[in-house]
Amino acid sequence: MRVRIETPAGPTSLHYDLPESQAPGTTPLVVLAHGAGSDMHAPALARTAQAIAAAGFAACRFNFAYREAGRRLPDRMPALVACYAAVLDHVRSDPALAPPAIAIGGRSLGGRTAAHLAAAGAAVDALVLLSFPLHPAGRPGPARAAHLAAVSVPMLFVSGTRDALAEWALLEPLVRALPTATLHAIEGADHALALPKRVRPPEAVAREVDEAVVSWLGRLFDRARPPTDGPSAPGRNPRRAGRRRARPAWPSRWRPRDAASRGSRRPPPARP
């Protein structure tokens, strides 16, 4: 399902991947943005969104306004954040969704923009950061991570250990120092979360990425679902993936909160 909306940065399009069991007010939502050189139809982004929907959650991917307009050069961060915020406002207010919990994130630039939005106080419940671009290629440093300390919600980082935009020796200790963050390493993968075919089949790498995302969301969002009498959606509890196990950051009797209160309470730190 595709929807077109207006944002402060210009018009853009959204695409929904919905589970068969989707119902207003009962299905958590994950919003995903694309990387700098791609769009919402990028195969890897679409595959992850579809895996999220197959696991019983709703997914929304969208174009930043510069890509919707056909431009290759990304807007500056304030315009990107304004576009993402408009998308977030739209999906939150859509009565056909009425999600009880919302995670935001994306690949590379999309995830970085989502992190800025969360650090600014947006009412979201989690961050999914795929190939977070810690620094420009060939210029290692932590400058792009300064805002992460202001993020109080659970964060999942999925990164390759040979990512030229996130030197592992910098990224790993930085993420482990964040109290609500979980890091899943794709051994030997680059910024595209890919390895040479002779080393590992692309399908196996893609499956690991999607299982890491879905299992982490499942452990968090199971608490956001209102009680039901029906069976669990297939794929809700895939096998454990990653070096660290994500632990729910909400209280054991967590209940969905309205948008105003959702962003105002700092969750307890996740245990390492």
For the biggest sheet, the summary is:
8 strands, mixed
Shape label = globular
Rg over CA atoms, rounded to whole Å, is 17 Å
Roughly how much helix do the residues carry, as a percent range? Answer: 25-40%
By secondary-structure content and strand pairing, the structural class works out as alpha/beta
Average pLDDT across residues?
85
Give the oligomer, counting copies of the same chain as homo and different chains as hetero: single chain
Report how far apart the termini are.
39 Å
Question: Uncertain regions: pLDDT < 50 for 5+ in a row?
Answer: 227-272
Quantity of strands, as a count:
8
Order of helices and strands: EEEHEHHEHEEHEHH
Number of helices: 7
What is the strand content?
15-25%
How are the strands of the largest sheet arranged? 1-2-4-3-5-6-7-8
